[in-house]
Write a structure and sequence with these properties.
Number of strands: 15
Strand order of the largest sheet: 13-12-11-15-14
Number of domains: 3
Mean pLDDT: 80
Shape: elongated
Structural class: alpha+beta
Strand content: 15-25%
Number of helices: 9
Radius of gyration: 32 Å
Largest sheet: 5 strands, mixed
Length: 429
């Protein structure tokens, strides 16, 4: 039998409240954790193809493995992560109010990033209104949520877990990331509409005391001139053409007409971040092998060891005052962050071909330079392989930027915080 939500919560010593149906109110204003479960296991994911289709219509930029999918392809990917023997769909937490958090999750439409997009996969299911919500109040909500994920993974049949597209990450179906940063690899990107910009803060309204009648501003030539006490009103000019208002200077990019450069607002790019091409990561073949070896070590050795330490520390008792558990979770969070970084670097890697000679310095060049009466040899590499002590200089460093494109015999000036320095390029190998 699959582990149920109340059994999962009680396994960690939590006091269980509930259940209520998905659309009902969770009567708790305290922080804590909550669990969404089906009333019974389902052999197949009850993904509604119509709901998936409307998701794609609302978010046409959604991609599956970098390509625009149709509804059946996206539904098949969602179904691939279904654990047929389980009833638990989602484990969430609230730092302030459980009732408000669950209400926000229920109210968020599929494809919207706000008010909260947690567990948005739930919104693709048929019969979600029959799902039940259980909860437990606790001030250590993050620690207990992470422990619930671990207890859930421990209860899953290893054979079922092995059939998942990402068997290394066992989470409830609608959860895509754990509190420690363990991320499920599912291939779905740009799943939400762009979030609306935050409203500008309201300007304070200053209420001025009424002024004497003879001190009210007088408008002339489009400008207000205050005429106050002790100052005589200027005589009216004789009838005739009205004086021309001063001409405003022509508008320039990033500068409003008639305003000084100090008054202009910062110019922001209108190009969404997700539409910008990611920066390539330049590495040598040896450097790429080192990155791959580090990732393999993290995935196959360090991650399992850390998970074991987290599990052992969790069994010691109260998680809110468990120093061993907190230390193990921090180590797990660091390891998961490094895994994500390495995976992204490898995905965007571009191999630097070893440069031999050439008339200009390029990535991979070995350069002999003279500065301060000494001759030094540097190899220009990408930022990931930089090691100045070993003579490997990043192309993004001040010295690397100055040398890139230089010819043998030329002088380059390096702009550094301690002052400018001149280097002469002796040889390019």
């Amino acid at each position: 039998m699959p582990i149920t939500a109340p059994e999962l919560l009680r396994s960690l010593g939590l006091r269980v409240d509930g259940p209520v149906l998905w659309n009902a109110e969770v009567r708790s204003t305290r922080p804590g954790v909550y669990v969404v479960e089906l009333p019974a296991p389902s052999a197949h994911a009850p993904v509604d193809l119509g709901l998936v289709g409307r998701w794609l219509e609302r978010v046409p930029d959604l991609l599956l493995d970098g390509e625009v999918p149709n509804g059946r392809q996206l539904a098949a990917r969602l179904s691939a992560f279904w654990l047929s023997g389980e009833v638990i769909l989602h484990i969430g937490r609230s730092d302030v109010s459980l009732g408000r958090r669950v209400a926000e999750v229920v109210a968020t439409a599929l494809g919207d990033p706000l008010p909260v997009a947690d567990a948005h996969w739930l919104k693709t299911l048929r019969g979600l209104e029959r799902a039940r919500v259980w909860w437990a109040e606790t001030d250590a909500q993050e620690e207990y949520q992470d422990a619930l994920f671990g207890a859930f993974a421990d209860a899953v049949d290893p054979a079922d877990a092995a059939r998942l597209p990402d068997p290394a990450v066992v989470l409830p179906w609608a959860d895509l990331e754990s509190p420690t940063g363990t991320v499920r690899v599912h291939g779905i990107t740009d799943a939400f509409l762009a979030a609306p910009p935050a409203p500008a803060p309201a300007r304070p309204v200053v209420v001025l005391a009424p002024e004497p009648a003879d001190s009210r501003p007088e408008v002339a030539g489009g400008r207000a001139h205050a005429v106050g006490a002790g100052r005589q009103r200027a005589p009216r000019a004789a009838a005739g053409p009205a004086p021309r208002a001063p001409e405003r200077e022509a508008a320039t990019p990033g500068r409003a007409p008639g305003r000084s450069p100090r008054a202009r607002a910062p110019v922001q790019s209108a190009l969404p971040a997700r539409n910008r091409a990611p920066e390539p990561v330049h590495v040598s073949a040896d450097g790429l092998e080192k990155l791959q070896a580090e990732l393999h070590e993290l995935l196959t050795v360090q991650r399992p060891e850390i998970i074991s330490r987290v599990k052992a520390a969790r069994e010691l008792g109260d998680l809110s005052e468990n120093a061993d558990y907190e230390a193990a979770r921090k180590e797990q969070s660091f390891a998961e962050g490094r895994i994500r970084t390495l995976e992204e670097m490898i995905r965007r890697s571009v191999i630097i071909e070893a440069s031999v000679g050439g008339d200009r310095v390029v990535l991979g060049s070995t350069v002999v330079v003279e500065a301060f009466g000494e001759t030094t040899e540097y190899t220009i590499v990408g930022p990931t392989e930089a090691n100045p002590a070993a003579g490997r200089v990043s192309a993004a460093s001040p010295l690397g930027q100055a040398l890139m494109g230089a010819r043998a015999g030329s002088d380059v000036v390096v702009h550094a915080p301690r002052g400018d320095a001149t280097y002469r390029v002796i040889e390019i190998r």
